[in-house]
């Protein structure tokens, strides 16, 4: 048995690059970097940070979401799997790169940070991606494990105003 699973929460390091592959039936692919930062105290009690950079690759429907809603600085949750590729460079040296292939992604962060914070169809929600077309259920032509973000989303009720916004005489208890 084996398992190849990655879960990351981080910030996008550069605007995504989106391409269409002609030899793959015009499949869309988006690539970008994601930074994850670990904070810890060293032996002297000083705060230290260690930032890891990850190369992210999103295909088809995931690439659509990335193209529409992701930009430099966007906070994302990504589930995927690790893939290492190799190639020969111009001087004949063997080169390697390690990438994360996206299976699932969710936009995180504040609503104001979201380029689609106006809402409506096509806007990301807490439960995924909202689309005017109903989910077809077909995963044909998608790489193994890629999830479609075209699923129906029920409208969500607006949360109640935080207690600190209420006047003192209107306390809820």
UniProtKB/TrEMBL annotation:
<keyword id="KW-0227">DNA damage</keyword>
<feature type="short sequence motif" description="Important for interaction with partner proteins">
    <location>
        <begin position="168"/>
        <end position="173"/>
    </location>
</feature>
<dbReference type="GO" id="GO:0003697">
    <property type="term" value="F:single-stranded DNA binding"/>
</dbReference>
<dbReference type="GO" id="GO:0006281">
    <property type="term" value="P:DNA repair"/>
</dbReference>
<protein>
    <recommendedName>
        <fullName>Single-stranded DNA-binding protein</fullName>
    </recommendedName>
</protein>
<feature type="compositionally biased region" description="Low complexity">
    <location>
        <begin position="150"/>
        <end position="163"/>
    </location>
</feature>
<dbReference type="GO" id="GO:0006310">
    <property type="term" value="P:DNA recombination"/>
</dbReference>
<keyword id="KW-0238">DNA-binding</keyword>
<dbReference type="InterPro" id="IPR012340">
    <property type="entry name" value="NA-bd_OB-fold"/>
</dbReference>
<dbReference type="InterPro" id="IPR000424">
    <property type="entry name" value="Primosome_PriB/ssb"/>
</dbReference>
<keyword id="KW-0233">DNA recombination</keyword>
<keyword id="KW-0235">DNA replication</keyword>
<dbReference type="GO" id="GO:0009295">
    <property type="term" value="C:nucleoid"/>
</dbReference>
<dbReference type="GO" id="GO:0006260">
    <property type="term" value="P:DNA replication"/>
</dbReference>
<feature type="region of interest" description="Disordered">
    <location>
        <begin position="111"/>
        <end position="173"/>
    </location>
</feature>
<dbReference type="Pfam" id="PF00436">
    <property type="entry name" value="SSB"/>
</dbReference>
<comment type="function">
    <text>Plays an important role in DNA replication, recombination and repair. Binds to ssDNA and to an array of partner proteins to recruit them to their sites of action during DNA metabolism.</text>
</comment>
<keyword id="KW-0234">DNA repair</keyword>
<dbReference type="InterPro" id="IPR011344">
    <property type="entry name" value="ssDNA-bd"/>
</dbReference>
<comment type="subunit">
    <text>Homotetramer.</text>
</comment>
<feature type="compositionally biased region" description="Polar residues">
    <location>
        <begin position="124"/>
        <end position="149"/>
    </location>
</feature>
